[in-house]
């Protein structure tokens, strides 16, 4: 009887208070992101990707989408991207990220920038219009733009991704296979994808200096990248000993909190402000 009273306020269709709480949380996140997108309360946070051995000069920056809730709090994509991935909101987020990334490239001609996208946005008309318009504004933008597609997203429609990449690589755009090792890539597609960059998922990188399993797995992923002529980037590098180990085994670039957290105040903005006040 007590258990029945305890569950009395749980709506039909939910088998436990926990499942109901998780569903309610997801709906709350989706509503928050919908509101932010509707009012364009989004921005990019920038994180450096540094070449191994030359960490003081970033190879490029990754533009990571952020949304602001009604209180002005900045919410990172990892808090909502899975909930909206299959929704229209996910496509709009991709559009806004691309729009802001292209504008940044236009404003800062010495910058190289990567922007995340889902394979689901490949056929989204608005996304393609934004890309075409952005590339038309500056002939150098294509060669400075990197599009990042996660491994799990790429495998949803591999044949579509192959054709899409081939078309845009001819225009000078580069592609990064993000979170490699976290998904379920069919290896027969790797030889067809022709990604320029392979980003090794952070679960294999954290603590790698003292973790033999991660050492073996990262070496295998690095070998795959070398076979298919892809630049390797280690994600989630957080400690100096891990950075030193990755450098020793020949990882070409690194990204993570050890080199700097994502920031909405990147160094080129400070430089521009300094020039204005001089």
UniProtKB/TrEMBL annotation:
EAL domain span: 26-276
GO molecular function: cyclic-guanylate-specific phosphodiesterase activity
Pfam families documented for this protein: EAL (PF00563)
InterPro entries on file: Cyclic-di-GMP_PDE-like, EAL_dom, EAL_sf
Protein name (Swiss-Prot/TrEMBL): EAL domain-containing protein
Protein species of origin: Roseovarius bejariae
